[in-house]
User: What shape does this take?
Amino acid sequence: MHTRFILINTSHAGNVGATARAMKTMGFDDLVLVAPRWANVLNREETIQRASGALDVLKNARIVATLEEALDGMAHLCATAMTPRDFGPPTRAPREHFAGLLGQAGSAPKEGPAAPESVAFLFGSERFGMQNEDVYRCHVALSIPTDPKFGSLNLGAAVQLIAYDWRQALGGFSVQQATAEPTQADAAAVAGMLKHWEEALAGIGFLDPASPKKLMPRLNQLFNRAQLSPEEIHILRGVAKAMLLKAAPAAPKDSTPARSADGH
Assistant: This one.
């Protein structure tokens, strides 16, 4: 679904860069600025620094003079307004509204309008938020649930939260593995390691071979649950080897007196 983020009268260049970064992390790239404070805001050093690599979003961003230009082609308009108003569109939490908008199970009536082909998210200036007349033209006022005692959000943070919830509603991205999945050691390797441990535990006096009870079967279950890798098997066998070395009796010293070179 075509998604557009619209910043109205943005006064801080860094927030434009932060918005571009927030959008890119969630896979969105249509950014429109309405009458920002700086005409060259897309090229300012602070903007580029805060974008942190999302330069393609900045490159494709557009600056327009009016909100009407920014809304061209958009079907469903979402204001972001934390301040309660006596008149205007309904106020909803983002996730609740997105689920209903996309007709997800349990969130929308069985019969209703189809999901729109395009959605625009509107954000007002940092100091004053959105003007009433801009909110009135929207279909909904999204309010991010925050602590009632302190609901002030930085513009870039607000964009990130909306972008995340919207991406999740659209299906989301799969989690990227930070580390490779470990290879699990086979049963023979585990059995060999357990045999080594049985010898070591007996060597240090922890296991009585004459009355082993269920110690080794329990250790077997423990290690199976751990799903040990070959490297971990190697470590555990090293521990067993160290225990056997500590348990081994010290070799007796040779008590034969040394002889001198002439045999005396």
Notes: Residues 33 and 125 are 11 Å apart (CA to CA). The first strand starts at residue 2 and ends at 8.
